[in-house]
Amino acid sequence: MSIAVRARQNLLLAALPAGDFERLLGHFEEVEMSLGQVLYESGEQLRHLYFPTTLIASLLFVTQNGSSTELAVAGREGAIGVALFMGGNSTNSRAIVQSAGMAIALPAAAMEEEFERGGALQWILLRYTQALITQMAQTAVCNRHHTLDQQLCRWLLISIDRLSSNRLRMTQQLIADMLGVRREGVTEAAGKLQTNGAITYSRGEITVIDRRLLEERVCECYGVVNKEYNRLLDDVQIPRQREMRRGNAD
Description:
By secondary structure, this protein is α+β, with helices and mostly antiparallel strands. 49% of the residues lie in helices and 20% in strands. A hairpin with a 5-residue loop joins strand 4 and strand 5.
């Protein structure tokens, strides 16, 4: 499978018109990342924009004492490193691989040059960023107002939505770090879901066996985020659709 085919596994890159995609293709670098690998640290200069194809990553805020809370999750529906085109070369969050896999890395200089054209890439990335902001805002609401059981259901659904399987390799301690809670709380919440038949958990691997049960228990935050992503991902298809219509007319 060529890098062009693998790059199209990312929904944002797949939405680019052929000409825009070909212009960027020579700059693409496919990278493999392991569970827990850090893509960038808080305050670090960003050198690449990453387009996940099979991995998912968490964006975390880390306090001075080392505790952390997840702000958002990004997978094949999006990009990692949005500060590059939002007016800065660094960010106050950390990006860490939540599920191992592959991503397409686009160097900052190539990304900035294409973004400044004001074409399809700019259109697509700005709409994705709007969806990402919605996820961040809703995560803050969820962490403040909803139970840990509901938060865990939201986190599991958002995560598997960004994977091609229903299986996550994830320790309960890492989940606790993502949610900003104690490990014992995650153990209790995961135990309830396993008893109810929604998931199975063994040796750092969580398998969702009944998605419907998670959807019944999750708070409204999942639906709000999901609806916004679906709406904006429909929008990012517009440049490609216009190109296809022109091609059919010719």
